[in-house]
Amino acid sequence: MTPNPAIMKAVDHLDYRVTLGDVAAQAGLDVKAAEQGLLALATDAGGHLQVSESGEIVYLFPNNFRSVLRNKFWRLRLREWWEKVWRILFYLIRISFGILLILSIIIIMAAIAIIVISTNSSSERNDSGGGENNSNGTMVFLPRFGFNPYWFWWFDWGYYDKPYRYQHQKQRERYRDKSPLPGKENEMNFLEAIFSFLFGDGNPNYNLEEERWQAIATVIKNNQGAVVAEQIAPYLDDLSTGYALEYEEYILPALTRFNGRPEVSPDGQIVYHFPELQTTAKEWHSQPVSAYLKEKTWRFSEANFGQIMLAIGLGAVNFVGALVLGSLLEDDRVIDNMGGFIAFVEVIYPVLLAYGVSFLLLPFIRYFWVQWRNGKVEKRNQQRQNKAIALNEVNNLLSQKIEYAREFAKERIISNQDLAYTTEKSILEQEAGQGDKVDAEWQRRLNQSDT
């Protein structure tokens, strides 16, 4: 069984000594899945089990457990290798669309220039050969296209031969909000901006479910394992209506996930008790948690305004150039006298035109799709915010429920002094230790009797 990355991350974060409730809360995992994962991880990584006198289990892992697993599982080594390779491949994919745009413009402009120059040269030869102007000739009037290398002053060629820059990009995305100069230090390069303009920058809520259950677990642990349904509601989406809402059926996924149980007050009110989350390997300090689960709105692009305008401008140049080239290629007499490069351009022209159209059409459609998605996101955020506001406006009934829930609130810290058994030592050593404890206790009682 390959170790669960979420459990490994939680063990790292919790300093390698954890309980089932600690990991379930930290990773937002189902209690049963967390228990199976912890047992498998302890077996594979050489971890130890510490059992308290009251029966709770603490899992103790070596600090180098990742190295142990890496040497043991070829899948982990393969996954780490593939992650490194994928960073390079994905970076190349990102910049390839910008390179294709520039290449398309160069091909189109070069083909137009060759056709126009060839046509003009042919006309001049015909005019000089006939001795007089041919009034029946066809005149082709097109704007003069020139190539200026300084158009691409923004293109840093030295940048793209360093694949590790992708890692810098990921760090930039992670710390974008913390940057003192968000418009400067965290700016993506132009080729990346082309990809962002076309396809965006991914789902900003890709880990929404993980954040949801982490927030719910944090609320439960901040309240020492006992809550009312109204405290969980701001982190859920569909609360249903009518009978289901009245009987708080929306809390069932949380009860199932964290092995909770309902408790009924003498007044018939229901509170929820989570014993698994009350046991911890070290003292739990109240953690900050948002008042409600807030989804991030989708952004059209992370590129700055100037980069987007430049992308639109180049896209327009590419599209108009493709139309002009298409009109020139319709003249069979011109094309028949040319071969080589122009023949190649004629073959790939449908691809050039399709790319030019899609380059402008795709972002146009995606812009309205983003607006539609954000409307739904804002609606869900508003509904959850209303639940948080209702929780803050505590009424007498809700106050009574919260007060009753506090009767079940407690925290059980498993320290080394509470252990009855650990796999770190042999049974004989532990039995000898227990014997020493008994002897010390008898000596203490004898001293008290003598006094």
Explain what the structure shows.
- The chain is of the alpha+beta class and 451 residues long.
- The chain is 59% helix and 7% strand.
- It contains 16 helices and 9 strands.
- The protein has helices at residues 5-13, 20-27, 31-45, 65-72, 74-130, 165-174, 190-199, 208-222, 229-232, 242-246, 252-258, 305-329, 332-336, 341-392, 396-405, 427-450; strands at 17-19, 48-52, 57-60, 226-227, 261-264, 270-273, 279-280, 412-413, 419-422.
- A 4-stranded antiparallel beta sheet has the order 1-3-2-9. It has a 3-stranded antiparallel beta sheet with strand order 4-6-5.
- Strand 2 (48-52) and strand 3 form a beta hairpin.
- The protein starts with a helix and ends with a helix.
- Mean pLDDT is 79; it is low at 131-172, 177-185 and 426-435.
